[in-house]
Amino acid sequence: MNIVVCVKHVPDAQSDRTFDAADNTTEREAVDGLLSELDEYAVEEALKIKEAAGDDTTVTILTMGPAKAADAVKKSLQMGADAGVHVSDDALAGSDSIATSLVLAKAVEKIGGVDLVLTGMASTDGTMSVVPAMLAERLGLPQVTFASELTLDGSTVTIRRDGDVATEVVRASLPAVVSVTDQINEPRYPSFKGIMAAKKKPVQTFSLADLGVDASEVGLDAAWTKVTQITQRPPRQQGLVVTDDGNGGAVLAQFLTMQKFV
Amino acid sequence: MSEVLVLVDHVDGQVRKTTSELLTLARRLGEPSAVFLGPGFDAAKETLAAYGAQKVYRVENPDVDDYLVVPVVDVLAALVEQAAPAAVLVSSSAHGKEIAARLAVRTGSGLITDAVDIRAGGSGVETTQSVFAGGYTVEATVTRGTPIVTVKPNSCAPEQAPGAAADEVVDVTVSDAAKTAQITERREKQKSGRPELSEAAIVVSGGRGTNGDFSPVEAFADALGAAVGASRAAVDAGWYPHTSQVGQTGKQVSPQLYVACGISGAIQHRAGMQTSKTIVAVNKDEEAPIFELVDFGVVGDLFTVLPQATQAVEAGKG
Ligand SMILES: Cc1cc2nc3c(=O)[nH]c(=O)nc-3n(C[C@H](O)[C@H](O)[C@H](O)COP(=O)(O)OP(=O)(O)OC[C@H]3O[C@@H](n4cnc5c(N)ncnc54)[C@H](O)[C@@H]3O)c2cc1C
Q1: Does B175 touch chain A (CB under 8 A)?
Q2: Using CA positions, which residue lies closest to atom 30 of ligand 1?
């Protein structure tokens, strides 16, 4: 079986994430980046499937992003994936989810013979949670998203999806696009052996031309939305913090009464 | 005036509050037309009319409930073509965002997710979003196609304004392509008797500091008529269900009041609650980062502070 895992390189949430003043896009150069933590769950799930199958299942990591994004591929290979594909092109800078899903779909088609496309539930920077659904729409494959549990039985994939009002069991035939939540597994850390082995694993780089995508379809200028203004929130004015001297609960209730919550 | 499509969120005709909010916002952009799928229309009609739906498109095709996401996209895509609306509004749940995402690709339209405000501006629909765990506010517009916007719960106070709610049955054939991911089982969540987390006006959450005992958190929530939330640490420990998790990988809530009890305030937790109007914390550790956000905080043990506060609130009500 051929599994492709889509991963994203994101600014570290612990760093001061900000915007590029010139074009209102997420600042990716000046801040430290890493493999989006939520994508580690997708990589882990792919590795678990491969290990359970015990056959010649391959796990290919697919990312789109600037040169730095290669680090996200590397980390995934260190965890145990077999190969990487990095789509990189200057024209991609500032691409929105619509363009990203287009490029990823073309890359999945180019890789070819893919049985399962796995993704995380959201990126930790954009947090839109829309690319997996868009990818399924573009590839014309079943969308089996927000899996908190996944079982594969031959060519049938079944997941548990926890919604607001109900938990659903969703079933589809492969090939399919599956996104996984952080409930599904516990991602492994790369082992020393994994780190060494990753150095020899193949990583292919594709340009837009390789994928047959026209540069006018991607990047900031092609976005179907436009950011008109970005303002940094003034840090929340810290309010009153009192130390409980035996009366803290009563004071809290007073505050809530004053604010008309009671 | 152009129509504005509002996808109705309901359970068997019980319209959720988020839909009343969307109808209220839709009136700023044009004439709201509700899109109602599934059974229960008779129960829903009154609410939809009260909040200003002039028209209700009804679809009773059972495929809509049996397959994930895509049948709804088929319906909305057909209506976008038919009605040429000024915008399509969907509530910002995981499900809603996926519907909006596919609709955007399908109709070649710009998509804005998690808006906290929306209005008619000089260049069309304008939205406000809150990003990077509430650190920045972003204003945006849609430059292509039909603006498709998902709006966070509690983004406005629902206001009534009677509409005709004239219903029009639409006969949409759901494509075979939409029937590839089948919902084979649906287990309704147990009803807690408390408001639904994502739409509650008040949320009281517990974290690792509860040490597994949520009873003081629940009692305080009940005194305030609040929903109960939890941090991931509490969920991972198995103390509270994942559907109650607040944060980046849980629910994103923006209630009028958020009370964090025994929660340190990690960035991933903040991502789910930082847009709350008023924030209160009870935590033993005065250095806990959650105190940087609060309007009011108590440094103390939640096992003494919460019961006392609960009692005082109940006495005040009595
Ligand atoms: C990819 C990723 C996604 C994540 N998503 C989420 C998410 O969606 N939601 C989320 O919440 N977290 C999320 N996290 C986890 C997050 O980083 C924190 O680990 C988590 O929020 C901590 O939960 P906590 O505050 O309950 O626990 P802790 O950080 O351990 O804090 C417990 C607090 O309780 C206080 N305390 C202890 N005893 C008492 C007492 N008796 N009375 C009062 N106070 C007391 C302590 O002083 C402490 O501040 C995510 C992490 C990652 C890596």
Answers
A1: no
A2: B208
How far does residue B236's CA lie from ligand 1's centre (Å)?
Answer: 10
pLDDT digits (tens, 9 = 90+) for A9-31: 988 777 677 777 777 777 766 67
CA B197 to chain centre: 9
The answer to whether residue A227 sits within a structural domain is no
- Among A79-83, B95-99, B103-107, B251-255, the minimum mean pLDDT is found in B251-255
Residue B300 C-alpha to ligand 1 middle, in angstroms?
Answer: 17
Q: Is A247 contained in some domain?
A: no
B77 and B124 assigned to the same domain: yes
Look at residue B192 and tell me if it is in a domain. Answer: no
Q: Under an 8 A CB cutoff, do B134 and A233 touch?
A: yes
Q: Which domain holds residue A145?
A: 2-222
CATH number at residue B289: 3.40.50.1220
pLDDT in tens, A173-229: 999 999 999 999 999 999 999 999 999 999 999 999 999 999 999 998 888 999 999
Asked if B23 contacts B32 with a C-beta cutoff of 8 angstroms, the reply is yes
Q: What is the ipTM of this complex?
A: 0.91
Instruction: Give me B38's structure tokens.
Output: 């599934």
CA distance B254 to B269: 13
B306 found inside a domain: yes
Among B87, B79, B78, B86, smallest CA distance to B1 is for B86
pLDDT above 70: percentage of residues in chain B? 99
Which phi and psi angles does A199 have, rounded to 5°? -60, -25
The best mutation among B197, B208, B236 to test binding of ligand 1, ranked by most ligand atoms within 8 Å of the C-beta, falls on: B208
CATH of the domain at A168: 3.40.50.620
Q: Which atom of ligand 1 is nearest to the CA of B282?
A: 43
| Total domains present in chain B | 2
